[in-house]
Design goal:
The chain is an alpha/beta fold. It has three domains: 79 residues, no CATH class; 139 residues, no CATH class; 147 residues, 3-Layer(aba) Sandwich (Rossmann fold). It is 59% helix and 8% strand. It has 16 helices and seven strands. A five-stranded parallel β-sheet has the order 2-3-6-1-7, covered by helices on one side. A two-stranded antiparallel ribbon has the order 4-5. Strand 2, helix 7 and strand 3 form a beta-alpha-beta unit. Helix 14 packs across helix 16.
Length: 393
């Protein structure tokens, strides 16, 4: 800087001095421009949107110009962030409106479907179980596949469906729905070695390695034959080895599909998990409402089904095929009043968190207000709100 000062003193031409002054200003502008770029980078914005030339006052010294630019820059970035947030909220509002319009349209179509179901005289539930029936046929006809594992939550008619399907196909059936010791299970297989066996609520069977071994042998053999063994030195009153020629259908509410023993058994046949969405459950209840039940009229049965639809949601955790008979019994007690409805609400239970999300969604506020209400009531975060809202939708 001393050299520059000396040079300026030696310069006689005013024009030459103005060039040096201009160079200094440009240099200071460059420094300030770097400052601007750095601040914009921190804010995640494009520095090109800030016109340094328009905001730079060349009459100020460097430190004054730098401070003025910094103040203007801070205000500019703050305003830009507000506009960006405003735009983001506007976009979110538009998306929410579109989602509500879509949901309203889907709801209207769903209402039409339910009306169409009640207007049809025939009960049509077969389409919901077609895959299961096809798999049963495949097992019965296959020379190599001998089992079907059917999993669904309780109350969705696994046992009824399997028994009905096998009876329709006119095969001999043996049914077991209690926990079995290894010896009892071996005896059951021996007594029914040529039949189609249904093992219902089989969760406990897998607790015994001997049971698992017998199931493996029953479902897959060496070559074309499947031999089941029971190794013991005691007299068990039957052969300790026999050829099993039947088929096995295993029914369960829930199983740990990562368990190695369970995986080894399932791998020997077909696996089908019955999963119904909330709307599918309601449709099926409307189908079942057409079935006679004691002295209730069709109008009364459909009325109960409609009440279920209006008073449940995806948050309801015990909505299944047993729901209607339970509510029919309550309805019969209060045939000429609405007293049964209060009791019915006690029968149906909600997942508390899902219920809170549902209530927040039903409020007329914006998404931001819905989230705030949910957080205040539940104590959970906004991430949980959107997670559970996705499940409901």
């Amino acid at each position: 800087m001393a050299f520059l000062s000396g040079s300026c003193e030696m310069m006689q031409s005013k024009g030459t001095f103005r060039v040096s002054q201009k160079a200094r200003i440009e240099y200071e502008k460059t420094l300030i421009k770097r400052l601007v770029e750095k601040e914009f980078q921190k804010a995640g914005l494009d520095s090109q949107s800030f016109d340094i030339e328009a905001h730079y006052d060349s009459s100020l010294n460097y430190h004054e110009a730098k401070q003025e630019i910094a103040d203007k820059l801070r205000a500019f970035i703050q305003e830009h962030k507000k506009e960006k947030l405003k735009h983001k909220e506007h976009e979110a509002h538009l998306q929410e409106v579109q989602m509500q319009e879509y949901e309203a349209k889907v709801k209207e179509e769903w209402e039409k479907e339910l009306i169409a179901i009640t207007e049809q005289k025939e009960v049509d539930v077969e389409k919901h179980f077609k895959v299961v029936k096809d798999l049963v046929r495949a097992v019965l006809q296959s020379p190599d596949v001998h089992s079907l594992f059917l999993i669904s939550e309780a109350g969705f008619g696994k046992s009824f469906l399997m028994l009905k399907t096998l009876k329709e196909m006119k095969v001999d059936i043996a049914y077991l729905n209690t926990y079995s010791t290894p010896l009892a299970l071996y005896e059951f297989f021996f007594d029914n070695q040529d039949k189609s066996i249904i093992l219902d609520d089989v969760e406990g069977i897998f607790n015994s390695p001997l049971n698992v071994g017998m199931l493996k042998s029953a479902l897959w053999g060496i070559g074309e034959k499947r031999y089941i063994n029971y190794n013991t030195s005691k007299d068990i009153g039957m052969p300790k080895r026999f050829e099993f020629k039947g088929k096995v259908f295993l029914l369960s509410n829930t199983l740990n599909l990562n368990d190695e023993n369970i995986k080894a058994v399932i791998d020997r046949g077909y696996l089908r998990q019955l999963e119904f969405s909330y709307k599918e459950k309601i449709k099926l209840l409307f189908e079942f409402a057409k079935l006679p039940y004691e002295d209730l009229t069709l109008k009364e049965r459909v009325g109960v089904a409609k009440w279920v639809k209006e008073n449940t949601s995806e948050a309801t955790i015990n909505l299944n095929f047993r729901t209607l008979p339970k509510l029919y019994a309550l309805f019969s007690l209060y045939r000429h009043s609405d007293g049964w409805k209060d009791l019915a609400k006690e029968v149906l239970r909600d997942n508390e968190t899902l219920a809170m999300v549902r209530e927040a969604m039903r409020s007329s506020g914006s998404v931001k207000e819905q989230v705030r209400n949910f957080v205040e009531v539940s104590g959970l975060g906004r991430t949980s709100y959107f997670k559970y809202r996705k499940l409901l939708r």
